[in-house]
Design brief:
The protein is α/β, with parallel strands linked by helices and about 375 residues long. It folds into 2 domains: about 10-65, Orthogonal Bundle (DNA polymerase, domain 1); about 75-355, Alpha-Beta Barrel (TIM Barrel). Helices cover about 35% and strands about 15% of the residues. The protein has 13 helices and 12 strands. It has helices at about 15-25, 30-45, 55-65, 145-160, 180-190, 210-215, 235-240, 245, 250-260, 280-295, 315-330, 340-345, 350-355, and strands spanning about 75-80, 85-90, 95-100, 115-120, 125, 140-145, 165-170, 200-205, 225-230, 270-275, 295-300, 335. Strands 1-2-3-4-7-8-9-10-11-12 form a 10-stranded mixed β-sheet, with helices on both faces. Strands 5-6 form a two-stranded antiparallel ribbon. Helix 1 packs across helix 2 and helix 4 crosses helix 5. Bound molecules: S-adenosylmethionine and iron/sulfur cluster. S-adenosylmethionine binds near residues 132, 174, 270, 304 and 347. Iron/sulfur cluster (SF4) binds near residues 174 and 228. Specifically methylates position 2 of adenine 2503 in 23S rRNA and position 2 of adenine 37 in tRNAs. Its cofactor is [4Fe-4S] cluster. Pfam families: Radical_SAM (PF04055), RlmN_N (PF21016). InterPro entries: Aldolase_TIM, Elp3/MiaA/NifB-like_rSAM, Methyltransferase_A, RlmN_N, RNA_MTrfase_RlmN, rRNA_lsu_MTrfase_RlmN/Cfr, rSAM, rSAM_sf.
Length: about 375
């Protein structure tokens, strides 16, 4: 079914409070109707309001006329059963968003796990323009709404026929630059009336928006935090991450210490290894000291090729040398060989190709 250009609002963006306001205050329904509707939306994951048979017919008609359920339309998938799969979804305005499903993986983000992880997008494009990343190649288009964030998860579950029990905000976009919608999506994802996924199974990855890290720390639930560090000194970080000119490492670490004072969860540093750019072994020593100061974990990621960028990953040997230096300082360190590398390299590329094919953006 195609989404209409002027699409109706999606019920997947409704929190328990929003739905109470809608059903009780605007439509005079008793409180138990709110519970019933929430169950249909988030637990039974109804595809249509017609399925909500314990709601009165008149209310079903009103809901059908004014709302839709899923705000995303499945376009295609890359990858196969039991490998990393990348889903492309179309939004009501013709834009595209990517969501990746990563099957059970040992020691992902510092935890032993038999989890199915969804890597979700938070924006269409990204304004932060990190020089290794496909998401920012064509700049920023728009924020995803809360229902579009929640909708990705529910649509991937439907497509894959498998329950997601771990979520990382490592898809397209900078989640902390879309804080209001992210916050609402987190309420829906963690709510016992919503998707009911524990905060400890959710990781927000950020390029380092220091003030927003403090805001995230002030949320009552303890969401995990991953920092896209990619450089252990300001000089190195400045070369590849424009965000560093706004919030330098000192200010970023000040925010991270605040986060740590509020949360028992260990912070993870993501560090892409790019040959000749940030893989100097001196960086490994400084990275290790910085990680130690926070009790943080380190994930080393050999650079994934991005079309249009000339950079390459260092040799495996060099990656192991870099890892061993960090490890020898007593820091828990993983060298993550990206599972998605063979299906389409880094996040953002599938969507860029599709928008290019649709004639939305120029080919690079
Ligand atoms: C796409 S960003 C989205 C979340 C947030 N904006 C951030 O920067 O952390 C998530 C992560 O994708 C990874 N990434 C981006 N481009 C990559 C590339 N070319 N190779 C490997 N990993 C990449 C980086 O680890 C980055 O930290
Ligand atoms: S790494 Fe994150 S912040 Fe940087 S351009 Fe990509 S999505 Fe944006």
């Amino acid at each position: 079914m195609s989404l209409k250009p002027q699409a109706l609002p999606s019920l997947l963006g409704y929190t328990a409070d929003d739905l109470t306001k809608l059903l009780k205050e605007e439509h005079g329904q008793p409180a138990y109707r709110v519970k019933q509707a929430l169950e249909w939306i988030y637990q039974h994951r109804a595809d249509s309001v017609d399925e909500m048979l314990n709601l009165p017919a008149a209310l079903r008609t009103t809901l059908k006329e004014n709302f839709r359920l899923s705000p995303v339309e499945f376009v295609r998938v890359q990858g196969s059963e039991d490998t990393t799969r990348k889903y492309l979804f179309k939004l009501h305005d013709g834009r595209y968003v990517e969501t990746v499903l990563i099957p059970a993986s040992p020691a992902l983000y510092g935890e032993k796990s038999d989890r199915h992880t969804a890597c979700v997008s938070s924006q269409v494009g990204c304004a932060y323009g990190c020089k290794f990343c496909a998401s920012g190649l064509d700049g920023f288009t728009r924020n995803l709404t809360a229902d579009e964030i929640v909708g990705q998860l529910m649509a991937v579950e439907k497509q894959a026929g498998r329950k997601i029990n771990n979520i990382v905000f490592m898809g397209m976009g900078e989640p902390l630059a879309n804080f209001k919608n992210l916050n609402k999506a987190l309420d829906i994802i963690t709510g016992h009336w919503g998707l009911n996924i524990g905060a400890r199974h959710i990781t927000i990855s950020t390029s380092g928006l220091a003030p927003m890290i403090k805001k995230l720390a002030d949320r009552p639930q303890q969401i995990r935090l991953a920092i896209s560090l990619h450089g252990a000194t300001n000089d190195t970080r400045d070369k590849i991450m424009p965000v560093n000119s706004k919030w330098q490492i000192e200010e970023l670490f000040d925010a991270l210490h605040y986060y740590k004072s509020k949360s028992k969860k260990r912070i993870t540093f993501e560090y892409i290894l790019i040959k000749g750019i940030n893989d100097d072994l001196e960086q490994a020593t400084i990275l290790a000291k910085r990680a130690k100061s926070l009790g943080a974990l380190v994930n080393l990621i050999p650079y994934n090729t991005v079309e249009g960028l000339e950079w390459v990953r260092p040799s495996e040997d060099h990656c192991y040398k870099f890892r061993d230096i960090v490890r020898n300082h007593g820091v828990t360190t993983t060298l993550r060989i990206e599972k998605g590398h063979d299906i389409d390299a880094a996040c953002g590329q599938l969507r860029l190709k599709q928008e290019t094919a649709d004639g939305k953006i120029e080919s690079k």
